């Protein structure tokens, strides 16, 4: 079985979750796209380094043969999945900080 066949059901589920649960705050598409870009770039950098160093490897028969540097394109599926799922469940509210009072200090 190829990495694509294993990954597609999970990516489809993540995309459905993202579409159904999305739109909870203004700019959700742009925010997801920005986070996706950052995560994919970091994945490309560090996965290339790990493959180059010989820490991981992929069987040629299990992937499509499309590479970004040394990284098979299927290696990005996990990163895409995680960004979509986290974005689907993120409510978009700004985190509020609590102010410390004098009683909180020792």
Write a structural description.
With about 110 residues, this protein is mainly α. It has one domain. The protein contains three helices and two strands. It has helices at about 5-20, 30-50, 75-90, and strands at about 65-70, 70. Strands 1-2 form a two-stranded antiparallel sheet. Strand 1 and strand 2 (about 70) form a beta hairpin. Helix 1 (about 5-20) packs parallel to helix 3 and helix 2 (about 30-50) runs antiparallel to helix 3. The longest helix has 25 residues, at about 30-50. The mean pLDDT is about 85.
Which SSEs are present, and which pair or pack?
Elements (H helix, E strand, L loop, with lengths): L2 H19 L6 H25 L14 E2 L2 E2 L4 H13 L17
Antiparallel strand pairs: 1-2
Helix pairs in contact: 1-3, 2-3
Overall structural domain count = 1
Order of helices and strands: HHEEH
Output the number of helix runs. Answer: 3
The SS-based structural class is mainly alpha
The shape is: globular
Let me know the largest β-sheet.
Answer: 2 strands, antiparallel
Q: Span from first to last CA?
A: 60 Å
GO biological process, one term: carotenoid biosynthetic process
Protein name: Lycopene cyclase domain-containing protein
Membrane topology: Multi-pass membrane protein
Organism: Corynebacterium endometrii
């Amino acid at each position: 079985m190829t990495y694509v066949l294993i990954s597609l059901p999970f990516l489809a589920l993540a995309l459905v979750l993202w579409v159904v649960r999305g739109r909870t705050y203004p700019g959700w598409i742009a925010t997801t796209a920005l986070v996706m870009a950052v995560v994919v770039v970091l994945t490309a950098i560090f996965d290339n380094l790990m493959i180059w160093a010989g820490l991981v490897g992929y069987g040629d028969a299990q992937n499509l043969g499309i590479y970004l540097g040394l990284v098979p394109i299927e290696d990005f599926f996990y990163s895409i999945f995680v960004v979509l799922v986290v974005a689907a469940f993120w409510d978009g509210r700004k985190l509020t900080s609590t102010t410390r009072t004098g009683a909180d200090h020792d």
